[in-house]
Design a protein that fits this description.
It is built from 8 helices and 2 strands, in the order ααααβαααβα. It has 2 domains: 72 residues, no CATH class; 83 residues, 3-Layer(aba) Sandwich (Rossmann fold). The protein has 155 residues and is mainly α. It has a two-stranded parallel ribbon. The protein starts with 7 loop residues before the first helix and ends with a helix.
Length: 155
């Protein structure tokens, strides 16, 4: 999604809506500044989602088709708002990686605020095919991913 903000039509629409205050010194969209605005105002968040989510969807379809043509055996796509976007039917297996709120916040300050605009983790977990609670070490997560890749590769 980050690359979408580099598109002139997206950058220009964001600047028209929020002004130059959302631009970095180099003229690119400063996602942090933009995030502070939209995560504080549900109307602005919905506007931004209306702008970028259709483009994200287009990019996903293009990316998937390209990799299927190349015969890539396993595709992984991170989509924090998968259920909110209503596109879960595009995936064979949905994996939800969860973590207690204090762990998430310790790893990425501000995560709880952003996630408050998404479906609750418990609902995402209930709708996923595989759930992993990521409260351990990076090595634990790596081991889980390796096991999952092996399992999905056998398909």
């Amino acid at each position: 999604m980050r690359g979408l903000y580099a598109r002139p039509e997206v950058r220009d629409a964001v600047v028209r809506r929020f002004g130059r205050r959302v631009l970095a010194d180099d003229g690119t969209v400063d996602r942090r500044s933009l995030g502070r605005i939209v995560f504080a105002d549900a109307t602005e968040l919905r506007w931004l989602e209306g702008l970028v989510l259709p483009l994200v969807s287009e990019e996903f379809v293009r990316w998937r088709a390209e990799h299927e043509r190349m015969g890539t055996p396993l595709l992984v796509h991170e989509a924090p708002t998968l259920f909110e976007a209503g596109v879960e039917d595009r995936y064979h297996t949905i994996v939800a990686i969860t973590a207690p709120e204090d762990v998430r916040e310790g790893r990425r300050p501000g995560a709880s605020e952003r996630m408050s605009h998404q479906l609750p983790e418990a609902e995402k977990a209930a709708r996923a095919d595989v759930v992993y609670e990521n409260s351990g070490s990076l090595e634990d997560l790596d081991a889980f991913v390796a096991r999952l890749v092996e399992r999905l590769g056998r398909g």
